[in-house]
């Protein structure tokens, strides 16, 4: 029993010393604030310590008074509808170029596939195929490697088209183009 009392007393003394030596969270925050390094970066970072209470913050850029004092010219106002139309036209041009590229690659691939089929058919109907079989095999390997290369190029162009359409959609242009396509489809249905 004596031993238990001594253990309890030692434990209480250790807890009391630990509590006296422990720093409160508020004291720790004050010391960190005092030792905070100055941030002299070009962009200003706002936190609760340096947030202005009497001024307004600009999340876009410098205040208009700052730009006038720097001698900056006032930007020309652009009609939002005009800007939207220019953006839509630019995206439409990019998408049309990519569609032309895909169409061209698809056409080349189709022609090469037909040439390979004609070459194989000619080799099968020719009586001297056994004599020229070695040359046919070399040509067939070359045709197939060309077809694979063109197929990869076509797949890459289609992936690029999908990426462009996603980017246009994010820019708010693709929806208008889809609406135009739907309108064209409706007009065809009516006829």
What does this protein look like?
This protein has a domain at 83-190. 74% of the residues lie in helices and 0% in strands. The chain has six helices and no strands. The chain has helices spanning 2-21, 25-34, 64-69, 80-125, 129-170, 174-190. The radius of gyration is 38 Å and the shape is elongated. It starts with a helix and ends with a helix.
User: How many beta-strand runs?
Assistant: 0
Structural class: mainly alpha
In percent terms, what proportion of residues is strand?
A: under 5%
Terminal residue distance: 104 Å
Unreliable sequence segments: none
Shape: elongated
Mean pLDDT: 75
How many helices does DSSP assign?
A: 6
List keywords for this structure.
0% strand; mainly alpha; elongated; 191 residues
Q: Short summary of the structure?
A:
By secondary structure, the chain is mostly helical. It has helices at about 1-20, 25-35, 65-70, 80-125, 130-170, 175-190.
Topology:
Elements: H1 2-21, H2 25-34, H3 64-69, H4 80-125, H5 129-170, H6 174-190
Helix pairs in contact: 4-5
């Amino acid at each position: 029993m004596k031993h238990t009392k001594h253990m309890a007393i030692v434990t209480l003394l250790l807890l009391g010393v630990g509590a006296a030596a422990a720093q409160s969270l508020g004291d720790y925050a004050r010391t960190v604030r005092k030792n905070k390094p100055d941030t002299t970066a070009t962009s200003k970072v706002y936190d609760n310590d340096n947030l202005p209470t009497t001024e307004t913050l600009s999340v876009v850029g410098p205040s208009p008074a700052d730009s006038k004092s720097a001698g900056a010219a006032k930007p020309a106002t652009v009609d939002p509808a005009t800007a939207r139309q220019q953006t839509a036209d630019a995206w439409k041009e990019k998408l049309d170029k990519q569609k032309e590229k895909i169409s061209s690659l698809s056409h080349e691939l189709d022609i090469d596939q037909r040439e390979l089929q004609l070459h194989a058919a000619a080799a099968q109907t020719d009586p001297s195929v056994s004599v020229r079989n070695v040359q046919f095999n070399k040509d067939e390997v070359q045709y197939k490697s060309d077809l694979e290369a063109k197929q990869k190029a076509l797949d890459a162009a289609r992936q690029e088209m999908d990426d462009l359409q996603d980017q246009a959609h994010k820019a708010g242009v693709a929806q208008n183009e889809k609406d135009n396509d739907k309108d064209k489809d409706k007009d065809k249905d009516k006829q």
